[in-house]
Automatic annotation (TrEMBL):
Pfam families: CbiX
GO molecular-function terms, A-Z: lyase activity; metal ion binding
Source organism per UniProt: Bacillus thermotolerans (Quasibacillus thermotolerans)
Keyword Metal-binding belongs to the record: yes
Protein name (database record): Sirohydrochlorin ferrochelatase
Keywords noted in UniProt: Lyase, Metal-binding
Length: 255
């Protein structure tokens, strides 16, 4: 019997964990797999090991593992496969398939624009935009974020579109939001390229509130639940189901 195990990042913030869990619950009815479980990589339970065990207890002998992450950073390439390798040894009869994360997708750019529009603020041609990512030392992840910025520019025709990171990469959010709030010709839009509320989004609010020009900064909601993301998740799971071999892999990385 087949199962899907959704691996979320995890958060110390209860609301962030709940948002991730509820997102998956709303996604499950659209995925035609009999067993579906949710777990967390860190900071919350159930753990990956507990999630796999739950799938097996329900009769799963094939498990599609979906890393519920925006981009293919270290968590998707190393941390989750590392945990799965440890768990796989406990269940040698189970076949595992490792799906791709959400990745760069035009639909997520549309969600960013939707988050801007729902603030009720007008979007002017001379507005500045700062797209904010979690951050990573992975070069491919940083290249993906540049692609996201370029897609956003193309879809909005806005020219002053910038990127920054909350950790592990530069330019840092604290530096860029200060610079742009002082230099922006009109208003500054801050767009969190994050799935859910968490410690990082809380820190962004505090940084913006402390700015001398805070009144000219518009902070949108995180990406959050959206049917378009649900559809991408479904697509990634279907892609993993079509793998010819039952191994866990991520591009050139295998466990």
């Amino acid at each position: 019997m087949k199962a899907v195990l959704y691996v979320c990042h995890g958060s110390r913030v209860r609301k962030g964990r709940e948002e991730a869990y509820h997102f998956i619950e709303q996604t499950k009815p659209f995925v035609d797999v009999p067993i579906q479980e949710t777990c967390f990589l860190e900071l919350a339970e159930p753990t990956i090991a507990q999630g796999v065990a739950s799938c097996v207890e329900q009769g799963a002998d094939e498990i599609i593992v979906f890393p519920f992450l925006l981009l293919a950073a270290g968590h998707a390439k190393k941390d989750i496969p590392h945990e799965l390798k440890k768990v796989k040894g406990q269940f040698p009869a189970v076949t595992f398939y490792y799906a791709q994360p959400i990745g760069v997708h035009e639909a997520l750019i549309d969600i960013l624009i939707e988050r801007m529009e729902e603030t009720g603020e007008s979007i002017e041609p001379d507005d500045s935009v700062l797209i904010v990512g979690r951050g990573s030392s992975d070069t491919q992840t940083l290249a993906d974020f540049v692609s996201i910025r370029n897609l956003f520019r193309l879809k909005t025709n806005l020219t002053d579109v910038n990127i920054s990171y909350l950790a592990a990469a530069s330019p840092r959010f604290t530096d860029e939001v200060k610079r742009l709030s002082e230099e922006a010709a009109s208003k500054l839009w801050v767009l969190p390229y994050l799935l859910f509320t968490g410690m990082l989004s809380h820190s962004m609010k505090k940084e913006i509130k402390a700015l001398p020009m805070a009144e000219s900064v518009v902070l949108t909601k995180c990406l959050g639940y959206h049917p378009a993301i649900r559809q991408i998740i479904h697509q990634r799971i279907q892609e993993a189901e079509q793998l010819e071999e039952g191994f866990l892999s991520f591009r050139s990385i295998s466990i």
